[in-house]
């Protein structure tokens, strides 16, 4: 059925369009096959990306990078290294260069009094959610980078994947369909004791896993987590006095003392699970690109939040969030619409807008195939200026959110007449 070049030019797609075997009818068998093919493809891609170990391994940091992370000059860091302080991590020497693990960095922060640990007797753990009705607005990207930034700064962080799509889980090199049993998601906690769930442990702790990041734990997700919606609906129908939005908050009470910050990545939906997230949080970060449609969905989100908070207030004490921050994401520096809308937002909500926008950058578009977040990249393969610009924007955004977290501790201490919160305790 070879076609002449001339025929191709006239009607390039005729042959494929008329092929009777293409786009056949699809039933359950074909759909299952499609699911299996997609999962297989993902597994292969993951295995190639993470060779040889098939699990993510975190990069190490050289002495200059560690000095920068500790906020000191190269010289003063090297002087301390040479002082032979007991237990002072020396890193490992590879090809004449010293390299430090994240655990080394955390130990260095502890020895030098730079680990900004809250005092558990005074400062509560802060629970945050990144939320918006829309997909593709960088909720997951912002969650993982905020968590990793805070972890590098020495905070103990728990990340919770509340999206059955499980993108956050996959960013940790974990395959949701084969490597996340239902018991290692928040699902059993939502199912609860009274439905006779055999997985009920009474705590979220049993579902939390360690990650390749020291002191950054993950509560993973997978498709089955969507069942949480049905569990809540059925409990609403069968359990008298069941408060559908307090389940997650109760679960967090069982684990949050172990962490300084808990960050929840949410699905773009108006769901029972998201109602739970918005009840459980102290702070909300709304991610949105500065574009018309996104402004519209942010408006809808606020409307929904008003209704939710009214509901929360009917059954408990008045819900007041410690902060709400609008984070402009995927901002195109040379786009006129983005410029205009971002300046509107900044002018209208100056106290609620993170002043540094997160720029649209090739660095984050590259995450897909090689599953490396910006904080995990050891050496960037593209233009180093592009990478530096992206990291600068990222660090500014995250530093502002860190500031918002510290403000919560500061204000609470002030209100209670406690000594002022100091970012780096000694
Ligand atoms: N600042 C950015 N620059 C370029 N691409 C981005 C940026 N932020 C997010 N992305 C990409 O946009 C897509 C959607 O982001 P994601 O975080 O998954 O959004 P959401 O969780 O809101 O659905 C992803 O492919 C991600 O890599
Ligand atoms: Mg997402």
Features:
426 residues, alpha/beta, Rossmann fold, 2 domains, 7-stranded mixed sheet, 3-stranded antiparallel sheet, 10 strands, binds adenosine-5'-diphosphate, binds magnesium ion
Notes on the structure:
The chain has 426 residues and is of the alpha/beta class. It folds into 2 domains: 61-111; 126-416, Rossmann fold, CATH 3.40.50. It is 46% helix and 11% strand. The chain contains 18 helices and 10 strands. It has helices at residues 5-10, 14-18, 28-49, 63-70, 74-82, 102-111, 139-152, 167-171, 176-179, 187-191, 227-238, 247-253, 272-280, 292-315, 336-348, 362-365, 367-370, 384-416; strands at residues 61-62, 92-94, 97-100, 126-131, 157-162, 209-210, 216-219, 261-266, 283-288, 323-328. It has a 7-stranded mixed β-sheet with strand order 6-7-5-8-4-9-10, sandwiched between helices. A 3-stranded antiparallel β-sheet has the order 1-3-2. Strand 6 and strand 7 form a beta hairpin. The longest helix has 33 residues, at 384-416. The protein starts with a helix and ends in a 10-residue tail after the last helix.
Short synopsis of the structure:
The protein is α/β, with parallel strands linked by helices and 426 residues long. The protein has helices at residues 5-10, 14-18, 28-49, 63-70, 74-82, 102-111, 139-152, 167-171, 176-179, 187-191, 227-238, 247-253, 272-280, 292-315, 336-348, 362-365, 367-370, 384-416; strands at residues 61-62, 92-94, 97-100, 126-131, 157-162, 209-210, 216-219, 261-266, 283-288, 323-328.
């Amino acid at each position: 059925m070879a076609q002449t070049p001339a025929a191709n030019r006239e009607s390039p797609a005729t042959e494929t369009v008329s092929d009777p075997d293409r786009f056949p009818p699809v039933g359950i068998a074909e759909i299952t096959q499609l699911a299996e093919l997609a999962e297989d493809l993902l597994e292969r891609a993951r295995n190639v990306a993470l060779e040889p170990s098939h699990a993510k391994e975190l990069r190490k940091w050289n002495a200059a990078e560690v000095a920068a992370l500790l906020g000191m000059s190269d010289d003063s860091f090297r002087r301390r290294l040479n002082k032979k302080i007991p237990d002072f991590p020396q890193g490992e020497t590879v090809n004449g260069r010293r390299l430090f693990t994240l655990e080394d960095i955390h130990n260095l922060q502890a020895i030098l009094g730079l680990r900004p640990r809250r005092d558990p007797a005074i400062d509560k753990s802060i629970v945050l959610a990144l939320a918006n009705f829309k997909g593709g607005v960088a909720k997951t990207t912002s969650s993982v980078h905020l968590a990793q930034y805070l972890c590098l700064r020495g905070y103990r962080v728990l990340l919770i994947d509340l999206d059955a799509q499980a993108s956050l889980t996959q960013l940790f090199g974990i395959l949701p369909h084969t490597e996340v049993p239902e018991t290692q998601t928040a699902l059993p906690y939502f199912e609860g004791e009274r439905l006779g769930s055999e997985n009920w442990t009474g705590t979220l702790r049993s579902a939390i896993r360690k990650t390749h990041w020291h002191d950054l734990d993950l509560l993973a997700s997978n498709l089955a987590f969507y069942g949480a919606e049905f569990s809540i609906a059925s409990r609403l129908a069968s359990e008298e006095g069941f408060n559908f939005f307090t389940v997650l908050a109760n679960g967090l009470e069982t684990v949050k003392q172990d962490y300084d910050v808990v960050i929840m990545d949410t699905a773009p939906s108006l769901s029972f699970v998201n109602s739970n997230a918005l009840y459980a949080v102290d702070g909300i970060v709304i991610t949105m690109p500065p574009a018309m449609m996104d402004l519209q969905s942010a408006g809808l989100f606020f409307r929904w939040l008003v209704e939710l908070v009214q509901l929360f207030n009917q059954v408990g004490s008045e819900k007041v969030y410690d902060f709400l921050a609008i984070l402009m994401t995927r901002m195109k520096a040379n786009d006129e619409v983005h410029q205009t809308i971002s300046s509107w937002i900044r002018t209208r909500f100056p106290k609620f807008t993170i002043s540094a926008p997160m720029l649209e950058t090739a660095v984050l578009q590259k995450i897909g195939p090689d599953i490396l977040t910006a904080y995990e990249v050891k050496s960037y393969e593209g233009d180093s200026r592009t990478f530096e610009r992206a990291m600068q924007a990222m660090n500014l955004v995250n530093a502002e959110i860190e500031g918002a977290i510290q403000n919560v501790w500061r204000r609470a201490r002030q209100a209670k007449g406690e000594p002022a919160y100091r970012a780096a305790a000694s």
